[in-house]
Design a protein that fits this description.
Helices cover 31% and strands 34% of the residues. The protein contains five helices and nine strands. The strands form two sheets. The chain has a five-stranded antiparallel beta sheet with strand order 1-2-3-4-5, with helices on both faces. Strand 1 and strand 2 form a beta hairpin.
């Protein structure tokens, strides 16, 4: 499924598919954001959930991957990443809305995620609410968040 979305710099393509279809593109973004930028150990970045998740990738007009994320079968959204120079242009929001819509279509009444605390306000704007106290994951402070899809889709 290809969807053209408008961004200030260019027309972008949003693709959704399996890990088999999108892993090469998704790995590029995830490695840059999580492993290089945030120092997440490479051994933690790719996991068994990739094979069973629905993935989203946003590409620029040259076909370069600039954003990615995934939806696990249980309704958990994760691995949301946008390359640093392109943050703040609505790419993350478009990916999140696509994943939330897919979750709703799959029958999930809500979605959840582990948000890095610096991104909590971003997720709150999409309807997510924090649940519980912050915790450490891969050396980064996170907060568990949940969103009722009946109120946001």
């Amino acid at each position: 499924m290809d969807i053209v979305i408008e961004a200030p710099e260019a027309s972008l393509t949003l693709k959704m598919g399996t890990w088999t279809d999108l892993s090469t593109l998704a790995r590029e973004v995830r490695h840059t954001v999580f492993v290089i930028e945030q120092s997440v150990p490479e051994s933690l970045e790719i996991d068994a959930f990739d094979a069973v998740s629905l993935h989203v990738v946003v590409q620029d007009t040259h076909g370069r991957a600039i954003g990615t994320g995934r939806l696990l079968p249980d309704g958990h959204i994760g691995r949301i990443a946008v390359l640093k120079p392109l943050r703040g242009h609505g790419i993350g929001e478009r990916m999140m809305r696509a994943l939330m819509s897919a979750a709703h279509e799959r029958g999930h009444a809500s979605v959840e995620l582990s948000a890095q605390c610096h991104a909590q306000a971003f997720y709150e704007r999409l309807g997510f609410k924090p649940q519980g106290a912050p915790y450490q994951e891969a050396g980064i402070t996170h907060v568990f968040m949940r969103c009722d899809l009946q109120k946001t889709t």
